[in-house]
Write a structure and sequence with these properties.
The complex is a heterodimer.
Chain A (H helix, E strand, L loop, with lengths): L23 H23 L1 H25 L9 H11 L7 H13 L15 H12 L1 H4 L7 H5 L12 H10 L9 H9 L11 H13 L6 H20 L7 H6 L3 H8 L10 H20 L9 H18 L10
Helix pairs in contact in A: 1-2, 1-3, 1-10, 2-3, 2-4, 3-4, 3-5, 4-5, 5-15, 10-13, 11-13, 11-14, 14-15
Chain B lengths: L1 E4 L30 E5 L9 E2 L6 E2 L4 E4 L8 E2 L4 E10 L5 E9 L19 H10 L12 H4 L10 E6 L8 H24 L3 E7 L3 H10 L6 E7 L8 H9 L14 E5 H13 L5 E7 L7 E6 L4 H7 L10 E4 L6 E3 L12 E5 L17 H5 L6 H9 L3 H6 L10 H5 L6 H23 L1
The chains are: A mainly alpha, B alpha/beta.
């Protein structure tokens, strides 16, 4: 056979020869764009602290990613933007008064222990931001549960709660119920405060409005599908509604459950983390329902220490994602029914 | 004949940019023939034909030059008159070396065709099948499976439906489209012959809804065909031209895993194959040429050329005014989803090559593969409902058995998964490697048994 001059040859590769144009970077950029309204809301409600924490987490995550890849002798992956997403998401899950060094320590943990040790993007089992938050809750329990006062407690008239113990909305309710007091009165104004975000909480989780705007963008861009957030939020709503119907005095109304405790942030931005959630639609539904049930269990067990539970619910479901993937493969075309 | 909308939508699939407008309006035309043609002996699935001429022999247009060499094989005929120069080795579009009969062309009107069957209705099934076999007709949609075998299913597999595949779901390609617009009557004739051989009660013509002029032409030409005949309009979605997806779209039947279309009582024939059947039976002309779309952003004047087999890609491109905007980055035999990138313009055309696609560097994106981020887009895109992400990871880890266990062999290599993958993973390449390993294992096991 005649061997031709190299320069005469055309590029040969396996089909397909065309691509839709998507990329991991573009997905991460879309997530960052979707997080922008919530970031704006955090600046509005928490001011310079929101900026301080977000900048610290993003910078530390980028640095940690770069160092890890260099130390492991792997290609640099800073440009895929995933470290920035982790930084922003972690910051959004931190209380405004958290010391800077703790935020940096958490970020270092997120990238090093939760992501790069597994092999970097695509290989981690747990959502790095959530796993780091769990680490910080254990390591810096006090600092991680100090909230600023947004005046929400006064507006729901939870007078039995010690005015100096500034807690998140679900924390207020849990303490009130534990103390044997009546369910706070959730006025329309209080619910609206929850919706817009003028409440105590982590810097990025308070404004349901801003987060839903971002989620709508992700759905429109087809970065996420409705399955996980829909199943998650739907399960919480149904679970909470049933409890509220059975015992209205002892149960938080469903709309309060939906708008507080980082549920919207978790359901739309953390549970939908592609790497740590199932790949089939059926698997996604199971994942979302599981997150919803675990969240509600954590929230409603009276003796429980945590008033919220979104982070732990998602982490637990992350752990069984490989199992869900295995059990939820689609029926192959042509399988005899 | 009635026109119906496809009642079933297969799950998955993609919507790539089609770019059909480049060539869809261009009528089929001839081309200045090259001085020599290298006619490959392997233009079909199965054993390559065996050259039955030698250097120095004179051949006429239609002379048998390659004899069928096995049950799954097909003969090859001289596409032009001339003198055999040599029996040489060439690379086919798929990159495999194969023998070719090199013919030095002479201007001559002499032909060496078969006897026309003026009254085909009075001929027996076996006579018609023998003619189709003798004419070297193979599936012209891409796979190149000998048509005679397809049209003679075993007794225990009765065929009730013949589907004419006019979906042409590959982007850019318009050869079937033009055939339907310009040769719908011959396609009808071929379809009637195939239908009578099969004894199929039902005839369906499947065309995607992005070809309204082809739909109109086929509606007109098929007017008055007796029995259960309909044109099924498919929504435009890749891969609707794939046999399994098309049978489902038209009949709602799923070809069982590991099975063949005949297991659902269906036979699918490409419209160009139907044309070839009519030419062979009614006019006695063996399969020696086909319409090939020369298109892409890197060719001057995209066109649909009726080209004799063995024409080099260089001659096709010259006939279309050469390159546009410099040298293309890729030259593809077939469409961008399943076609073969070829290394050289010396590549000869063959029975299954429906297009030559020239893409400029701007259209050929080169990516570095990244780790799978489990986004699940490939899962949504897979028309076979596989988990390409997982399959690819199994193959990457050399766990071929693991991949086989999650239905690797069901992959049809349509490329939908790789098309949507944001991590630019070479998913189809992984599937092909895995499947090749399994086939090699099976062959080795069989050899050991024998």
């Amino acid at each position: 056979m005649k061997v031709e001059n190299q320069t005469e040859l055309f590029l040969v590769s396996s089909s397909p020869h065309t691509h839709i144009g998507s990329s991991v970077e573009r997905i991460m950029l879309d997530v960052l764009i979707a997080l922008a309204p919530a970031f704006a809301a955090s600046l509005y409600f928490f001011g310079v602290d929101a900026l301080r924490l977000t900048a610290t987490c993003v910078a530390t995550c980028l640095l940690a990613e770069w160092l890890c890849r260099k130390a492991m002798g792997r290609t640099n992956t800073i440009s895929d933007l995933s470290a920035i997403v982790t930084g922003v998401l972690l910051a959004f899950n931190l209380p405004p008064s958290l010391p800077t060094w703790m935020a940096a320590a958490g970020s270092l943990f997120a990238i090093t222990i939760c992501k790069q040790i597994f092999g970097g993007i695509g290989y981690n089992v747990f959502n790095p931001a959530l796993a780091a938050r769990a680490f910080m809750l254990i390591s810096f329990t006090g600092a991680m549960t100090v909230w600023s006062n947004s005046g929400w407690i006064a507006s729901v008239g939870a007078s039995t709660v010690d005015a100096t113990t500034v807690a998140t909305p679900l924390g207020v309710v849990k303490e009130a119920l534990k103390a044997g007091a009546a369910m706070p009165n959730f006025t329309g104004a209080a619910v609206m405060q929850l919706f817009t975000g003028k409440i105590n909480g982590c810097i990025g989780e308070t404004s349901a409005l801003a987060l839903l705007l971002g989620a709508a963008y992700l759905l429109w861009r087809k970065v996420i599908t409705w399955h996980i957030p829909g199943a998650y939020i739907g399960t919480v709503f149904i679970y909470a509604s049933i409890l509220h119907l059975v015992a209205p005095e002892a149960s938080v109304p469903p709309q309060i459950h939906l708008l507080s405790g980082g549920l919207i942030l978790g359901a739309c931005f953390m549970a939908t983390d592609m790497v740590t959630s199932p790949v089939t639609r059926k698997g996604m539904l199971i994942f979302g329902v599981g997150c919803g049930i675990i969240t509600m269990l954590i929230r409603t067990v009276k003796s429980g220490a945590y008033p919220e539970g979104v982070s732990f619910a998602i982490l637990l479901m992350n752990a069984i994602t490989p199992l869900i993937n295995r059990g939820c493969r689609n029926k192959v075309f042509g399988t005899k029914s | 004949m009635q026109t119906i909308k496809s009642p079933y939508n297969f799950k998955g699939g993609i919507h790539p940019a089609y770019h059909k407008e480049l060539a869809s309006g261009s009528a089929i035309q001839g081309l200045p023939l090259p001085a020599t043609l290298s006619v490959p002996m392997s233009q079909h699935l199965g054993a390559p034909a065996k050259p039955c001429v030698k250097a120095g022999d004179e051949v006429k247009k239609g002379t048998l030059i390659g004899a069928q060499a096995g049950f799954i094989s097909a003969p090859v005929h001289a596409p032009v008159a001339g003198k055999v120069n040599a029996i040489a080795e060439v690379l086919t579009a798929s990159g495999r070396p194969c023998q070719a009969v090199v013919i030095e062309r002479v201007e001559s009107d002499e032909t060496d065709f078969m006897q026309p069957m003026t009254n085909w209705q009075s001929r027996s099934k076996d006579e018609l099948l023998a003619r189709i076999s003798e004419a070297g007709i193979v599936g012209m949609g891409g796979a190149g499976f000998p048509t005679k075998i397809k049209l003679s299913p075993p007794m225990d597999k009765p065929i009730d439906t013949l589907i004419l595949n006019g979906a042409e779901c590959e982007p850019y390609l318009t050869s079937d489209h033009r055939m339907m617009v310009e040769h719908a009557r011959e396609i009808r004739l071929g379809a009637e012959i195939a239908r009578s051989i099969l004894g199929a009660k039902t005839l369906r013509i499947a065309i995607e809804d992005n070809k309204p002029d082809a739909i109109a032409a086929v509606e007109k030409a098929f007017e008055g065909v007796a029995g259960d005949v309909a044109l099924t309009v498919l929504r435009t979605s890749y891969p609707h031209g794939s046999e399994k997806q098309q049978i489902y779209a038209v009949t709602g039947r799923e070809v069982p895993r590991g099975g063949l279309p005949m297991d659902t009582g269906c036979v699918v024939e490409n419209v160009s194959t139907a044309f070839a059947i009519s030419e062979a039976v009614v006019k006695g002309i063996p399969l020696i040429q086909r319409v090939i779309t020369v298109t892409g952003d890197a060719v001057q004047n995209p066109a649909n050329l009726m080209a004799p087999f063995g024409t080099s890609y260089q001659s096709l491109i010259d006939a279309c005014g050469g390159f546009r905007g410099g040298r293309p980055a890729k030259v593809i035999s077939g469409g961008p989803m399943m076609g073969f990138a070829v290394s050289s313009l010396a590549t000869p055309t063959g029975k299954t090559a429906s297009g030559v696609l020239l893409l400029s560097p701007g259209r050929v994106s080169q990516y570095t593969s990244q780790a799978c981020i489990s986004c699940g887009r490939c899962v949504d895109a897979c028309p076979m409902r596989l988990i390409p992400s997982e399959l690819s990871q199994f193959v990457e880890a050399d766990d071929i058995e693991g991949a086989e266990g999650i239905a690797l062999m069901d992959c049809i290599e349509c490329g939908s998964c790789a098309f949507v993958c944001p991590a630019h993973r070479p998913l189809v390449q992984h599937m092909r490697r895995g499947k090749a390993c399994i086939m090699a294992q099976r062959a080795a096991a069989k050899a050991k048994r024998d």
